[in-house]
Amino acid sequence: MSQKHWWVIVAILILVVAGVWMVKLGSTLPSGEEEVPAADGDTTSEINEELQGINISDLEGEFQAVDEELQGL
Questions:
Q1: Is the pTM of this model over 0.85?
Q2: Which of 4, 8, 28, 32 is deepest in the core (most CB within 10 A)?
């Protein structure tokens, strides 16, 4: 093989190694950031139950409940 073929092979190997390194680097979390675990109390069923308890047709009552909670602060 000529010297030109060797340079092409070396360039391809460098590109492959760089590509694998970039993919691996992109799949890890950045330093200093940790994955936040899901809260134990927030489940889909609990959220759906809370949404079902909201009465959309009685907005005045809903606002009154919010006002009472704010006055308690």
A1: no
A2: 8
